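Title: Comparing notes on inverse folding

I've been comparing how different people in this forum approach sequence design from structure. To keep things fair, I'm posting one structure and asking everyone to reply with a full sequence. Here's the target:
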């Protein structure tokens, strides 16, 4: 691993978001009216919502600072979020890039955010908390740039200042990754990440050398395997709490650069993750990703970000809001918030879910029996 590098911090004052900020502003509670954002498809969704669900605005700003990631770090009561691509002379030096945003004091009445403008990470996207072998880190994927010095790949981020970064894998053999988009940390400590070609189609990366596929990186052995392929654009990725099922959202209908293919893939797929007999002696090898099956397809848009809760329910962010399914693919319900460009969600404390919606960061308060997979263990 290369030497650690430090973040250059650019602290955004409250003046940057004023007067648009609406911290703590409640926009919706459960209601029988047609205006309610809570769409109940199954009675089980009532249990998830609890007796008094609430959707409120944490931040409402002029820049698209809340687009992806949503990685909660409980010890510091903070969340790492990634912006959409934007250009601002005071923040990005005029470049069109994505930046890492650190929201602190998350559970208080006075949350704040800071942009972590780090020169060695080019266009971060998403990831997950990494808690294995005593580590307390963030596994983060980056799209990369046109510059070989700021590659695409998978990195460890120290969640404490000075927010050091350690590269884990930035190429598959001699081939640079296309533009990794999301990552999930399995119970065995391995990290699965998607690698679509959006970086190229959006003008951030050179022409791709690799298929649109999913990889498995093992920190214990520092090895990477191509684990599953044949996607249009593999995007969000998550797993069941026990690590036996991999979920991958395919957003192939979104070609990139504003082009939509109405016949393109929009389903989320489920796969079994298991060891298989190998060799003449029947010894077990793997894990392998098998039994590809359609898990669900949103009735609006396609799943970008994906997460699971400890009950195995699958949570996906689509163009109309948040969708929730049972482990068997039955739609439980939705939370509509009408911001079609947001890309992800993040579980925080029990019963708290944060929804990324570009200029707006929402907080969803539901039953405290709902806990995100991988948030605390």
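Reply #1:
Here's my take.
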């Amino acid at each position: 691993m290369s030497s650690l590098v430090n973040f250059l911090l650019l602290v955004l004052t409250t003046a940057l978001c004023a007067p648009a900020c609406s911290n703590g502003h409640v926009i919706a509670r459960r209601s029988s009216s047609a205006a309610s954002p809570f769409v109940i498809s199954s009675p089980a969704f009532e249990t998830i919502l609890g007796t008094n669900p609430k959707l409120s605005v944490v931040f409402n700003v002029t820049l698209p600072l809340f687009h992806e990631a949503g990685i909660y770090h409980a010890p510091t009561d903070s969340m790492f979020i990634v912006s959409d691509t934007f250009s601002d002379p005071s923040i990005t030096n005029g470049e069109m890039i994505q930046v890492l945003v650190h929201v602190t004091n998350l559970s208080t009445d006075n949350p704040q955010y800071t942009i972590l403008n780090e020169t060695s990470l080019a266009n971060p996207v998403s990831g997950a908390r990494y808690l294995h072998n005593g580590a307390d880190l963030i596994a983060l994927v980056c799209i990369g740039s046109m510059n070989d010095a700021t590659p695409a790949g998978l990195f460890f981020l120290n969640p404490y200042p000075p927010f050091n970064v350690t590269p884990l894998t930035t190429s598959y053999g001699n081939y640079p990754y296309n533009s990794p988009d999301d990552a999930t940390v399995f119970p065995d400590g391995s990290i699965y990440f998607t690698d679509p070609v959006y970086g190229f189609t959006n003008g951030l990366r050179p022409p791709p050398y690799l298929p649109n596929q999913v990889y498995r990186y093992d920190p214990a052995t520092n090895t990477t395997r191509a684990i599953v392929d044949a996607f249009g654009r593999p995007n969000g990725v998550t797993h069941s709490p026990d690590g036996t099922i991999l979920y991958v959202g395919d957003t192939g209908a979104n070609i990139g650069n504003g082009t939509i293919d109405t016949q393109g893939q929009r389903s989320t797929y489920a796969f079994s993750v298991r060891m298989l007999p190998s060799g003449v002696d029947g010894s077990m090898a793997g894990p392998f990703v098998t039994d590809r099956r359609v898990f669900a397809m949103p009735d609006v848009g396609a799943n970008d970000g994906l997460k699971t809760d400890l009950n195995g329910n699958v949570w996906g962010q689509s163009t109309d809001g948040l969708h929730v399914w049972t482990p068997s693919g039955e739609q439980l319900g939705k939370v509509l918030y009408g911001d079609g460009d947001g890309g992800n969600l993040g579980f925080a404390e029990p019963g708290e879910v944060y929804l990324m919606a570009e200029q707006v960061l929402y907080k969803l308060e539901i039953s405290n029996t709902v806990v995100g997979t991988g948030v605390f263990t």
